[in-house]
């Protein structure tokens, strides 16, 4: 066991060096006579410890990063990268990108985002919370989760492992508009996987996890382990159900995936390729009128907060869905130009989507559903982004008269995303905040369920 500390306390001090490297690259690009250039550098370092059955299995320390430069010449684009931040290595990388740009095809839509869109007001979003954690600290955390898991129920026969992580990142972006900025962030996590077995030999597996910017905000190891055990035990003695059409309640972690299909459908790259079921859908109703999604990029300490996107464009609070209607697409500079629309600052992803709710807890949605299916796991890639057709393997729980009766597995749920979105009956107010999509469980009016 190493006593190496997770180096989260020092990465912030490297920002000046990283900014200097970006500035140097931009200056070299200017000397070569490029039309414009942009440079990004990301440096990650951290520690990860995995245990299995209360024994340390792996200890991984990582420290890596690279500088990437894009050079534009009269509509032509060249890319290069280097992990060596010496002046000569940066010069060679810039020259390589410039040489490539001389020979690539012209694309009138390529280039930097407009200068007027660059972020001007940078606030401290409280993303960096360093802790000097050793491998022993993380091992203790993981083992504690396993101990709690294994002692929760006699049907938990073994652990399939626990992992504790402490990572930090420093990012710098600059371009020839004069934009140059950087920030540091931390991310801590703990997960535990349990294996349960009934007397008849039937086995099931499930897990739980916690993640946060601040180490103190993680759930306790005991809580993670106990939740993993309970979720596993609840799945024992799973069975199929008869083929039917029933209401379906997506658990929060599955509901985020459902909204992920919306992200794909309204992203610029899908739209200009005409590979989306939501083409020309701005201002049209695609959800019930009470349903809203708000993007909040500046939430303090949140997992998907940012002052600007990966092109330096300022992020802003934005209505994604307003009274059930699609209020915006998600556009980068390139996709916006291709579509003849305005850049929305979504190069690199989304920023803290918060879904409205129907003032019901997840438990209350179960009762409101009456008879139906709770989906806690989906499998396979059976989603057609062009038509919206949806068909995936699933597991979960059968509900009758508002009561959970038994676990279900080896079934398929199917529908069309347009119908599924419009058929949302409720959203739980007890939200899962462990991803960039902040939502509770989502109740759909009906889906096709293929079972026995």
Automatic annotation (TrEMBL):
**SUPFAM superfamilies, A to Z:** Putative modulator of DNA gyrase, PmbA/TldD (SSF111283)
Q: Which residues form the Metalloprotease TldD/E central domain?
A: 129-236
Q: Which Gene3D superfamilies match?
A: PmbA/TldD superfamily
GO MF: metallopeptidase activity
Q: Which domain of life is it from?
A: Bacteria
Pfam families in UniProt: PmbA_TldD_1st, PmbA_TldD_2nd, PmbA_TldD_3rd
Q: Where is the Metalloprotease TldD/E N-terminal domain?
A: 37-101
A GO biological process this protein is involved in?
Answer: proteolysis
Ordered alphabetically, the record's keywords are: Hydrolase, Metalloprotease, Protease
Q: What is this protein called?
A: Metalloprotease PmbA
Q: Which source organism?
A: Shewanella gaetbuli
Lineage of origin: Bacteria, Pseudomonadati, Pseudomonadota, Gammaproteobacteria, Alteromonadales
């Amino acid at each position: 066991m190493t006593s190496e500390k997770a180096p989260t306390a020092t990465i912030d001090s490297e920002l000046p060096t990283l900014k200097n490297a970006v500035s140097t690259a931009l200056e070299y690009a200017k000397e070569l006579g490029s039309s414009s250039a942009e440079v990004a550098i990301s440096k990650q370092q951290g520690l990860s410890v995995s245990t299995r059955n209360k024994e340390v299995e792996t200890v991984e320390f990582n420290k890596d990063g690279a500088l990437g430069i894009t050079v534009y010449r009269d509509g032509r684009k060249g890319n290069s990268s280097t992990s060596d931040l010496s002046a000569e290595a940066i010069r060679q990388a810039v020259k390589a990108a410039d040489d490539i740009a001389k020979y690539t095809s012209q694309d009138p839509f390529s280039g930097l985002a407009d200068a007027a869109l660059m972020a001007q007001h940078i606030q401290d979003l409280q993303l960096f919370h360093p802790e000097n954690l050793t491998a022993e600290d993380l091992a203790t955390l993981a083992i504690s989760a396993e101990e709690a898991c294994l002692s929760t129920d006699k049907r938990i026969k073994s652990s399939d492992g626990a992992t504790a992580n402490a990572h930090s990142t420093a990012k710098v972006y600059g371009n020839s508009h004069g934009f140059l900025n950087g920030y540091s962030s931390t991310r801590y996590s703990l997960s535990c996987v349990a294996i349960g077995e009934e007397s008849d030999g039937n086995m099931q597996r499930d897990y739980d996890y916690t993640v946060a910017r601040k180490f103190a905000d993680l759930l306790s190891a005991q809580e993670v382990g106990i939740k993993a055990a309970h979720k596993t035990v609840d799945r024992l003695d799973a069975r199929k159900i008869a083929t039917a059409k029933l209401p379906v309640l997506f658990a929060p972690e599955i509901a985020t995936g459902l909204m992920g299909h919306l992200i794909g459908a309204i992203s610029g790259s899908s739209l200009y390729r005409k590979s989306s079921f939501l083409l020309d859908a701005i201002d049209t109703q695609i959800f019930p009128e009470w349903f809203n999604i708000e993007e909040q990029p500046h939430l303090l300490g949140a997992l998907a907060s940012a002052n600007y996107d990966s092109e330096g464009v300022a992020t802003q609070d934005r209505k994604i869905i307003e009274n059930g209607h699609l209020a915006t697409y998600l556009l980068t500079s390139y996709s916006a130009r291709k579509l003849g629309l305005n850049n929305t600052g979504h190069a690199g992803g989304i920023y803290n989507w918060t879904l409205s709710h129907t003032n019901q807890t997840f438990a209350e949605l179960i009762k409101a559903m009456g008879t139906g299916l709770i989906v806690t796991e989906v499998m396979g890639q059976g989603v057609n982004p062009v038509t919206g057709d949806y068909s995936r393997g699933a597991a979960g729980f059968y509900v009758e008269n508002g009561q959970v009766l038994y676990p279900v597995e080896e079934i398929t749920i199917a529908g069309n995303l347009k119908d599924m979105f419009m058929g949302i009956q409720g959203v739980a107010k007890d939200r899962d905040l462990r991803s960039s999509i902040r939502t509770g469980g989502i109740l759909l009016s009906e889906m096709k369920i293929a079972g026995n």
